[in-house]
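Support request from a user on the community tier.

User writes: "When I paste my structure tokens into the form, the page sometimes reloads and wipes my input. The last time it worked, I copied everything first. Here is what I submitted, just in case something in the input itself triggers the reload:"
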């Protein structure tokens, strides 16, 4: 079952979020990640959907709003997608992406962006299979304060 995450879901969501961050080689910091998630929820700065099997949280997707000046519309940035390793292969990722697509339609957004590493072989198979197109006509640049 996929549903919007609420503050009551913070503990199981944070456990998944911490695993997701460790997958990307970040140090575990449950206190900081809980604060981050809680702040996103309270300030309504993100849409987070969770997958559950009964009482067990199995995955989540987190989206942030962005806007396209050329299209004069909202886009959603699919920033985080994670399924617990014990629950992979059950279609949970596709269900979470389908829920994200529904959010786009519900908010009259013109689409969704995402970024993944070239070495994310599973993601690089999943995203085209769910309708995403690889953009090779643009260069993606990053500037950080780190």
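"...and here is what came back when it finally went through:"
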């Amino acid at each position: 079952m996929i549903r919007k995450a609420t503050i009551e879901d913070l503990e199981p969501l944070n456990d998944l979020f911490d695993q997701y961050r460790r997958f990307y080689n970040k140090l575990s910091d449950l206190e900081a990640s809980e604060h981050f998630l809680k702040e996103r929820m309270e300030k309504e700065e993100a849409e987070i959907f969770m997958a559950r099997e009964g009482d067990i949280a199995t995955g989540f997707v987190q989206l942030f709003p962005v806007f396209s000046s050329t299209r004069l519309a909202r886009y959603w940035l699919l920033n985080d997608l994670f399924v617990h390793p014990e629950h992979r292969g059950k279609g949970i990722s596709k269900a979470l992406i389908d829920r994200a697509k529904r959010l786009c339609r519900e908010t009259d957004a013109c689409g969704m962006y995402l970024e993944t590493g070239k070495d994310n072989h599973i993601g690089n198979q999943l995203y085209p299979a769910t309708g995403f197109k690889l953009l090779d006509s643009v260069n993606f640049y990053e500037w950080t304060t780190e």
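Agent notes: The reload is a front-end session timeout and is unrelated to the input. DSSP finds four helices and five strands in the chain. The radius of gyration is 15 Å. Escalated to web team.
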